[in-house]
């Protein structure tokens, strides 16, 4: 994400794995994360913070 500037979507993660990634990246000032979609196809997106 930092190299390309493009958001990256992670699929096939459990809710626990998504929460861990949100928590792990929350202190990165230049990145943000969000989840979208409905289970079982919910996805996590990492993108450059505006």
Describe the fold and architecture.
With 50 residues, the protein is α+β, with helices and mostly antiparallel strands. The chain has one helix at 15-25; strands spanning 8-10, 31-36, 43-48. A 3-stranded antiparallel β-sheet has the order 1-3-2, with helices on one face. Strand 2 (31-36) and strand 3 form a beta hairpin. The two termini are 13 Å apart.
Compose a concise summary of this entry:
The protein is α+β, with helices and mostly antiparallel strands. The protein is built from one helix and three strands.
What is the global morphology? globular
Strand % is 25-35%
Would you count the extended β strands for me?
Answer: 3
How do the strands line up in the largest sheet?
1-3-2
Rg estimate, integer Å: 11 Å
Low-pLDDT stretches are none
Structural class estimated from helices and strands: alpha+beta
CATH superfamily: R3H-like domain
How many separate domains make up the residues?
A: 1
Enumerate how many helices there are, as a single number: 1
Q: What's the N-to-C terminus distance?
A: 13 Å
| Helix content bin | 10-25%
**H/E element string?**
EHEE
The CATH architecture designation is 2-Layer Sandwich
Major sheet: 3 strands, antiparallel
CATH class: Alpha Beta
Mean pLDDT: 97
CATH topology: Ribosomal Protein S8, Chain: A, domain 1
């Amino acid at each position: 994400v930092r190299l390309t500037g493009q958001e990256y979507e992670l699929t096939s993660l459990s809710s626990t794995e998504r929460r861990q990634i949100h928590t792990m990246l929350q202190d990165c000032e230049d990145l943000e994360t969000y989840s979208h979609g409905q289970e079982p196809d919910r996805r996590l997106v990492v993108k450059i913070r505006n």
